[in-house]
Specification:
This protein is α/β, with parallel strands linked by helices. The chain folds into four domains: about 1-45 and about 485-510, no CATH class; about 105-195, no CATH class; about 250-465, no CATH class; about 525-780, Rossmann fold (3-Layer(aba) Sandwich), CATH 3.40.50. The chain is built from 25 helices and 21 strands. It has an eight-stranded mixed sheet with strand order 14-21-20-15-19-16-18-17, sandwiched between helices. α6 crosses α7 (about 200-210). The longest helix has about 60 residues, at about 230-290. The two termini are about 65 Å apart. The model is unreliable at about 60-75 and about 750-780 (pLDDT under 50).
Amino acid sequence: MANQLDEIIDFRQFFFKVIKNWPLFVMALLLAFSLAFAYNRYTHELYSVETSIIIKEDSAMPTASDLLYDNMSSNNVSLENKELMLKSYPLVHKTLKDLRFNIEYCIVGNIKVSETFHAPILLNCNSTEKLSGKSIEIEILNENSFLMIDEETGEKRTCNFDEEFIFHDSKMSVSINTNFQFDTEMELPKSVVKFYNLKYLTQSYQKKIITSQKDRESTVLNISILSEDQLKGVTFLNQLTYNYIQKEIEEKNTASKNTVKFINDQLIEMSDSLALIEQQIQEFRNDNQVIDLSLKSQSIYSNIVTLETELAKSKTINNYYDYLSGYLLKGSNLEGISVPTSFDVNDVSLNSLIKQLVEIQIKKNILIDGGQVNNPAIPQYKRQTKQLVLNLKEAITTSKSANNLLITDYKARISKMESSLGNIPQVERELFSIERLQSISENIYIFLLKKRAEAKITSSSNVSDSHVLEPAMYFKKNPVRPDKNMSYLIAVLCGLLLPMAFMFFSELIKDTIITRTDLEKSTTIPILGMIGGNDSAYNLLSKQSPKSPVFEGFRALRSNLNFFNTNTDKKVYLVTSSISGEGKTYIAANLAIVYAKSGKKTLVIGADLRRPRLYTDFSLKNDLGMTSHIFGDKSLNEVIIKSDVENLDILISGPVPANPSDALLNEKFKIMLATLKEQYDIIILDTPPLGLVADALTLMQYSDINLYVVRQNYSQKGILSYVNDLFIKNRVGDMQIVFNDVKEGSGAYGYGYGYGYGYGYGYGYGYTTNSEYFADSEKK
């Protein structure tokens, strides 16, 4: 692959091309640096703000079932739930609402409008529901008034500070921010106030919040956000973590509050009962003149009261079971269910089931609040909840049945104790019954008061499982976006690599011959010489300075031909090319001129009978020529033209025949060439392109050396391969390549040849340009 690429691209030549085009790289670097500067200057800066919270390890520890099933990932699951909770819609919505972030302040600069948390003005508005998507520009006029512009309608209005005005049916007022530091030497800044829909703003912030576990071994969560204003980001994160901790505490307090509510309902009933019993006792004592019970009655009374108290507690527990059944029947807010231990119900199974139910409900709500409504875990949680509710109902039935057995036992024991009251006077028995009810009610009342106090203490002592480890803090630092150093680094790379890539791919896809190396890779035909680009307005050397570089190039070409052609009998040179425009006529005419100037009697023949061009270069008419001799009665002397150049004659093609190929195969054409070879030292044939028609191949049977013209940056490699195949098959005779129109500095001469423009002699060795030559001629 490397060798194939090396065949396509000459990397050494490519390197010299890069060096030569250094101004392009300078311009690219300047442009890239300018773009980088503009990007750094006018792109909205984003700052990274971070905070971290630590989760209580007990809340993240694996449960017994996790250990049983070797599920040691429960710690990660718990932390993932915390992450979802931190990004949940209700929590983010409450945070944004608390901070009034649906009202955004911006400072208007010369080019960009930048968000700020510290604006020169403050806007007070009771409701922003109707203002979603609206914005107003505020320009401070003086200490008392400002100009307000509705950016939607363009309406302008002058208002006073701290005075209410109506904006899109909403009352609001604007006041000066006393904490803003005004620069007295600068123009008062313009502000833009934007109003956002809190719902869409919440969804946007949910995407901005980034949470991650600090490491796998810890229970620390990092929370970060990118904000245009660093102080605004700090404020948001601190408020978010505060609301999160408060929400955790509220969730813990929900069960305690429900317990207190249930106990309060029971206390109200007991309070009414106690008041009625107190009244009954007082009335009975007044009516029967009885103060206290006898010692025997007091002993029996004490035992019965104890049993009745236990019986009342059991009935209260039954009330709790009924409350629990009703709560499960509602099926809502199951995570707020009161735990049995609050009522001295020490049923391990019941406690475990309720604990599992609460945990599953919290996990499910975290996913739903976090916008994970399609999470596959939610259906699983619902199935688990349904099964736990069924198990709880069975457990409640079982526990209530066991409790009813206790109630029956208490009643039997109380009934047995009551039977011993037969020997006590009737009045004492009646007082005993009333006081017994009073004592039982008082004991139950005290029991409920104790449980309510315990529930309130639990609620007050509840703390969050999380606390802030490192709060978000404001300090000056570089923005994370745009990364200015990275921008300039990318600018350097782009400034260097893009021009290089452009040059590389242009080299990769180019199909024209550029350098001598391209020629050598594309064909095995020998390269006879190279002719530099002609910067003159004239095609013929006879009208150019004999010291011009192009003239020297043709002299070198003539020398090379003489060197390779030592046989004096070989005097016919054919000039062809692949397609029109490669300079075959130009080469043929000028090669004839340099031979004529060397003293050789030379004839150049326009053998292109299809699109003749030779006559135009010599400023002749094409009404009489070779075809006039072959197909007419004109003699050679009549059709051969003497040129202005000594020793140079011209035989142009003449009128274009109907079938040019027939003319070249005509016997008269063969005789003509044989005759001309006897009269001239050098004969040069200008033929049609070899790649288009077969005329050139026909003429090659009369030629001694065939010159194939390749033009720099014009001739295509694909067509050259066709001629190369002919050369390999020996169908084109003794063929040599002439590399035409070679530009100075193009690298066409390869590496290390040291020659310059016009086959290597340059301008510094006593030669002159065409303009200098003709300027000297005019002086003479």
